[in-house]
Design goal:
heterodimer, A: 112 residues, Helix Hairpins, B: 494 residues, mainly alpha, two-stranded antiparallel sheet, 2 strands, 2% strand, transmembrane (chain B), NADH dehydrogenase (ubiquinone) activity (chain B), membrane (chain B), CPA3_Na-H_Antiporter_D (chain B)
């Protein structure tokens, strides 16, 4: 199971990086989203995917899954959610003010 | 008593929340922020003295024992850096009203400012890798807010690049923590150090170490990963540039110093010798950038990069002497980069341009600013009585001790080129024919801007002239750093 998850994480990272290297701003943001999905899946996988009950204390259950990676993922998800929403607004403003969403055209040397 | 450790994080956090509620009353916010920053500085200074006299303070959050809960470790290294951070914060909060417009100030500048200070202090104090990631995000989110404040065309363009590179490296950080967790089964630094020590950092652990290095090197702008730094750093307001230049890359350097002296210190031949090569390349490419441009802000921004190279050189050589050089240089560089960004911001403000070719003879109108800048350039380059000298001396002594002649020569040469790049601003901008002041109405504010920078510069000069007062502390820190057992024992209490 870990192997499948590792391959899936790898595919997410690959497509994410491919999208990061595109010219269109929105594609780049989609790339960052894919990479963060890949990272979160990696955390889950690295905690080992042993079968067990959900980590909620219940009577009569001996075997739980590892609760720590789930807490880490939850933290990481909200953080990347916050950054992504900021990035989307930033891209919107930048595209509006600079008049383009093409990263090639977003360079320039006009500093004061 | 160990609760003192949380104060450097908690106080700015509370201050930031309070000023968020009254952001529309600009004068009140401004004065309140000054009070908060000064009080915070005094309290942190007191905690620093306490740590210096009584030894490391370890705070176990929520009374959970060390490897299971989050720990805050207030050792002397972390407290020294937190104190330096707060000194810069005080200077910046007094500089801010001069350089920011009223609208920018009322748009939550001080909230972002205090969040940044809180995040940086947290990153210095934490003893947990995932918590370090969270504090990185706290300070980065605040820096995203600061970098777009003002909504300029160039700012929006550069901030996209800044956010993207940081988001990518944060995700890499999370992945690397996941790898480390799968190998050692913990995210607590002390326990991870203990477990890595047990297996003597074999196989995959060195790969993880290099991945950690890549993450922190992106934050710290080490050679192949520095391309994102210069332009985003000069596009925001001068006070924001000063905060960034003084604090953000140094958090990356601190993280490299911490992880590679505490956790991954067993494969020194592989990892640390890699650092030496990268440090040399960082210095060379940084100074090439600094002497290649005519934009005065860009010159200072490029000068951050060779400074990171110097610090990395000390970590790479990895002896007590060189580590003490790194720590001294770290403190010195935080202060002097703050000074330089403030001064160069003031210069560009009064000259109405940051293009060196368009300014001349400013010293006739602004003698104080000019001589401060001259002094700051000498401090940066490491001319003997000033603070840059002692750090570099220790680093070069460390390099000669380990017979790393190549890096020593590169370091000396790049010091010369740093001096050249800074003095070029002084000669071309301040000397020369007296021309009319381009924007006379800015004269009064421009003179006011010199004051916080002068106060910081005094401290920087004091750090060099009074090296005998500070150096024993730095030396005891480097002894402490070179013996990770003390850290592990104080956290895990064995």
């Amino acid at each position: 199971m870990e192997l499948i998850m590792a391959v899936l994480g790898g595919i997410l990272f690959t497509t994410g990086v491919y999208n990061l290297l595109q010219k269109q701003l929105l594609r780049i943001i989609i790339g960052t989203a894919l990479i963060s999905h890949g990272a979160h899946l990696f955390i889950l996988t690295m905690g080992e995917l042993k079968t067990g009950a959900p980590p909620v204390l219940t009577e009569g259950v001996e075997n739980y899954t590892d609760p720590l990676p789930q807490a880490l993922i939850l933290t990481s998800i909200v953080i990347s959610f916050g950054v992504t929403s900021l990035l989307l607004v930033l891209a919107y403003r930048a595209a509006k003010i600079n008049g383009t969403d093409n990263m090639e055209e977003l360079r320039g040397t006009d500093y004061e | 008593m160990s609760n003192l450790t949380v104060l450097p994080i908690l106080l700015p956090l509370v201050a930031g929340i309070i000023v968020a509620f009254i952001h529309k009353k600009t004068t009140l916010t401004r004065n309140l922020s000054k009070v908060f920053a000064v009080v915070n500085f005094l309290i942190v200074g007191w905690v620093f003295l306490h740590v210096k006299n009584q030894g490391t303070l370890v705070l176990e959050m929520g009374s959970w024992e060390a490897p299971f809960g989050i720990v805050l470790v207030g050792d002397l290294l972390a407290m020294t850096l937190v104190l330096t951070t707060n000194i810069i914060a005080v200077a910046c909060v007094f500089f801010a009203p001069q350089s920011l417009t009223e609208k920018e100030e009322s748009f939550y500048f001080y909230t972002f400012f205090f969040m940044l200070i809180s995040g940086v202090s947290g990153a210095f104090l934490t003893g947990d890798l995932f918590n370090l990631f969270v504090f990185f995000e706290v300070l980065l989110m605040a820096s995203y807010g600061l970098i777009v404040l003002g909504n300029g065309k160039a700012q929006l363009r550069e901030s996209i690049k800044y956010v993207l590179i940081n988001l990518f490296s944060s995700m890499l950080f999370v992945t690397t923590i996941a790898f480390l967790y799968s190998v050692v089964g913990t995210v607590n630094m002390a326990q991870a150090a203990q477990r890595v020590q047990e297996v003597e950092q074999q196989g995959v652990l060195t790969t993880i170490a290099i991945l950690f290095f890549f993450v922190f090197a992106t934050k710290a702008a080490v050679f192949p990963l520095y391309y994102w730094l210069p332009r985003p750093y000069i596009s925001p307001n001068p006070v924001v540039s000063a905060l960034f230049g003084a604090l953000l890359t140094k958090v990356g350097v601190y993280s490299i110093l911490r992880t590679f002296t505490l956790i991954f210190n067993h494969e020194v031949g592989l990892t640390h010798s890699l650092f030496i090569y990268l440090a040399a390349l960082t210095m060379i490419f940084g100074v090439i950038g600094a002497i290649s441009t005519n934009n005065i802000k860009l010159i200072v921004a490029y000068n951050i990069i060779p400074a990171v190279g110097f610090m990395l050189m000390g970590i790479g050589i990895f002896t007590e002497v060189s580590i003490s050089g790194t720590i001294y240089y770290l403190v010195h560089d935080m202060i002097i980069k703050g000074v330089l960004f403030l001064l160069v911001g003031a210069t560009a403000y009064v000259a109405g341009t940051s293009d060196l070719r368009k300014m001349s003879g400013l010293i006739h109108h602004y003698p104080v600013l000019g001589w401060l800048f001259f002094l700051a350039s000498l401090v940066l380059a490491g001319i003997p009585p000033f603070s840059g000298f002692i750090g570099k001396l220790q680093l070069i002594r460390g390099g000669l001790g380990e017979e790393e002649i190549m890096i020593v020569l590169v370091a000396l040469l790049s010091s010369l080129l740093i001096l050249f790049s800074m003095i070029r601003i002084f000669i071309r901008g301040y000397w020369g024919d007296k021309i009319e002041i381009p924007v006379p109405e800015r004269e009064k504010k421009g003179k006011k801007m010199a004051l916080p920078a002068a106060a910081l510069l005094t401290l920087s000069v004091l750090l060099g002239v009074g090296a005998e007062w500070f150096f024993p502390t730095i030396q005891s820190i480097s002894q402490y750093i070179m013996d990770p057992e003390i850290y592990i024992d104080s956290v895990l209490k064995e």
